[in-house]
Write a structure and sequence with these properties.
single chain; alpha/beta; two-stranded antiparallel ribbon; 8 helices; globular
Length: 242
């Protein structure tokens, strides 16, 4: 576990942080603005927080950008979100590459338009050899869907005779998830004050610390992240033990 100095305090850093970027629509509504403005501000903040996490030494960062349930939103809002994704895939994400951040897209990206899918493939390929922080961007992601997908792959391997039923283990299951080779999530941060995990990395967050913060995502600043890290550092993680 690495540490960083925050003011006069030494903070123990989690290896893997998950952030549920929540509250863009409510941020806009509070100001009498269209929801799309909230999404624009949330996307801008995503860039700032990601770069800060890399700067202070976080090794893995997973962010919830678009869930499998978000397709239920109005088509106009979905179209705007797709436009934001494309813009940031073309512009802001390139900044992450220049900072040695390795970018992975988590979820079923096959449903997106061809231009977005091509950008996803290009970004993952170009950042593959980067050695800095790993950034997981969850797009069309759901924890239950990921677990079902992993189960189907293992069942197929058993059926094809590649593995024995008795060989199935937690490690094998983890190796069939989108995050294969990565450590489990240590800390989940949810801005917006909502006390739920919303189908976010259900397997990987089995023993994650959860910190809910009463601030909407576009207003979530680096000092809010520092405060969450201070809380995390003060907790005694027992993993079911004493």
């Amino acid at each position: 576990m690495s540490t960083y100095q925050n003011s006069n305090q030494s903070i123990s850093l989690p290896n893997h942080i998950g952030i549920i970027m929540d509250g863009n629509g409510r941020w806009a509504k509070k100001r009498g603005l269209p929801r799309k403005i909230g999404h624009n501000m949330g996307a801008k903040n995503f860039k700032n927080i990601t770069k800060y996490c890399s700067k202070i030494g976080i090794k893995y960062l997973s962010v919830f950008a678009f869930s499998t349930e978000n397709w239920k939103r109005p088509q106009s809002e979905i179209s705007h979100l797709m436009g934001i994704f494309k813009q940031y895939l073309e512009d802001a994400i390139s900044e992450f590459h220049s900072e040695n951040i390795k970018i992975k897209f988590i979820g079923d990206t096959s449903v997106f338009a061809e231009d977005i899918k091509n950008l996803i493939q290009k970004i993952q390929s170009e950042s593959e050899n980067n050695t800095g922080m790993v950034l997981n961007i969850a797009m069309n992601y759901g924890g239950r869907a990921e677990i079902i997908n992993a189960t189907k792959k293992i069942v197929k391997d058993v059926k094809d005779g590649k593995i024995n039923f008795e060989d199935i283990s937690e490690e094998m299951f983890s190796n069939n998830l989108y995050t294969v080779g990565q450590p489990d999530i240590d800390l989940i941060i949810r801005p917006s004050g909502e006390y739920r995990i919303s189908n976010f990395f259900l397997w990987q967050s089995a023993y994650a610390e959860l910190i809910v913060m009463d601030v909407l995502w576009p207003d979530f600043k680096t000092y809010d992240l520092n405060h969450a890290l201070e809380i995390y550092s003060s907790r005694n993680r027992r993993f079911g033990g004493i």
